[in-house]
């Protein structure tokens, strides 16, 4: 009896069967690149000896064959860890329990670092395989590619295979240099022929990489990932260069409408930025960008069209028709990406609808609201908020035009999250005196050492999480009424409330003595935040109406910004519906995580495609109730909806 752990799979095999063969027959996840030639060491296992009452077997020391010459040679040259055997060389001689360590499993799980996050189960589309190809002779008229295809069929069960011209051009040299052994990077989808993306003479020990890209309207974030084990080797972000054509999505659509060829200019700009990111990430890790063999994109519909070179003009007007909402499988050369391997396979996640893009689909893949018994509201806050509401019964999605205020734009002292930006704020309800923290300094501003500690950067402005906290704290301390009006110095009893024409502002920090700015919250800032938060709340409320509930069980805040929002302040402001504060969690950059999951797993790509087809899209732009909810949500926290959890 042969028992594999941790899978528990078991079976009987004739004496002399290699462990790798037994594993394959039982469907045990045991890796191999060299196909059992004793070269790659990916098939390492740890046999267990002694009594195993749980499995009902006793394993004797001679249950596996002794080292053969290949295994002994491998150990001599490369060294095998104590207790390890090469599964392709060790043969079964009796009852045995064989443990497959995580690094020998193809479908190993990669646990994400964030708390209670889902695991990524590796199921890569591209794998390295060593193949031994028959030499040509005068009686064998087939070409080298046909003999490679035959070898892949016999040795790896690959039914049909194609190779791009760039690979074909190097095939003959590689085969002869490798003495008729080549390592191929083979991409295999669900259907159609497999593709040889790259090849190397003999056994190639190098790694292959993929890029998971979250293409946002403001920033592009890319994660260079090892395709063998899902490890992120480096991450980098860059500004989306399309900003020069328009700050937000609709202004970019307008640019495309009003300037012939404008869409092509934006397409060119974003592709160049992606090339630049790929190059710098490869340099950072010390690899050639040609070793990047797969790319996965998540993005909103306008970014999606502009990336693909499709005019986004239809997305600017009802009924917001997408050229395609389906997932896309392309090659790097289709997108003119010139830094990475030109045969690299590109996968673009499906869009949910004309306003709810592949980024929301990626959040759904990462968070799987459809698997939750609780009704979960998931909000990805950006210039547009992508909102998902659902549980095991159904999932709804919408997007809401929050504008850039939550990112610090349109705010008088607003700035991006960077050292010197105010990110945490408290206001004493009695004295109305503020204290705050800036990014890059651990001290609160009322600490005597604060000014000295921030000497390098100074206090430069307020970032998104800071503006939410300061507005919420102003409301809590009575500086602001429920309608969002800032009180005068007489009304509030503090000289920090300063008259500015017919309205008032609140002075948070006067840095003029240190040569810095005066940082105030103006009535205009409050209005901008009210508009943004009302749009967000109205979107959530619309989905709640659609399901027929007036409360949700949990709230998940996604996105780089969502990770920094204080749940209490978000609720005081009325950005999110009332829930117990400990039922609000941050999911970090869930869209980026969704992209990584899809990069590492073919099964996850099918999963998100199925999931998106089951999500119901709710269109905020044409729904009259959206306006009603928007107006009622203008009050802080809300004109009518109760917030009992804020009273506790
Ligand atoms: Fe490559 Fe065993 S399969 S060494």
UniProtKB/TrEMBL annotation:
CDD domains: fer2. This is DUF4445 domain-containing protein. Residues 1-104 form the 2Fe-2S ferredoxin-type domain. It comes from the Bacteria. GO terms for molecular function: iron-sulfur cluster binding. It comes from Rubellimicrobium roseum. InterPro entries: 2Fe-2S_ferredoxin-like_sf, 2Fe-2S_ferredoxin-type, Beta-grasp_dom_sf, Corrinoid_activation_enz, Raco-like_middle, Raco-like_middle_sf, RACo_C, RACo_linker.
